[in-house]
Amino acid sequence: MTLPATAAERAATYWNAPETVRDFAALTAQPYLVEILSRYAGALDGPALDLGCGGGRNTVALLEHGCTVVAVDLHEAMVDATRAATADFPADRVTVRQGAADAVPADDDTFAFAVCYGVLHNAPTPREFAASIAELARVLRPGAVLALNTFTADSLDPRLRPGEAAGQYILPDDVPMTLLPTGEILAALAGHGLRPEGEVHTYVRDLDVGPRAVLRCELRHDGRIGTGEDVSRDA
Question: From CA 32, how far away is CA 53, in angstroms rounded?
């Protein structure tokens, strides 16, 4: 079988594949997100964003905790899966849109809460990784909370190949991703006014795709945007 020609096409082939969509649609929200929502959801003054909604598990958790939700995913099949997963909720409480993490289809200062789990590291270049952080800061209101997890460069799977830019790595299926050290990611977030609130968790998970170092934390938006530390080292 001939692989799709571009990295974007190869990534889309994976994320839109029926077996991938089926696997993600079968997942339920992680207990740590449920715990976060139990603390914040009832006090939110505004809608929530599920950025990179995948099969919809986090969108469903947000809805179950009383949020009005905008769910966004780059890939059409995942958008369809999230729409199916949320079909029983009132239509005025959930909107599912196709869009990119570095071009979120929402106005400035829209969201009081955001979930961004397993998304940032899928940026094909550090430039797009940085743009995604800037977008999160743009669409979050001052005082909003961001629940984040992303893979990092703190421990690297030996099967990954270095890409053309520092921080870019190539998966065995030739799809690029961005992996940066935890300190660099937190500095970039802080530069856009997103600062950790509570404990910052870092650990290594053994997944079916190999070992991945993870950063997981909650961040509070202090209202400053546009001053972020540059992680776009391919510029």
Answer: 17
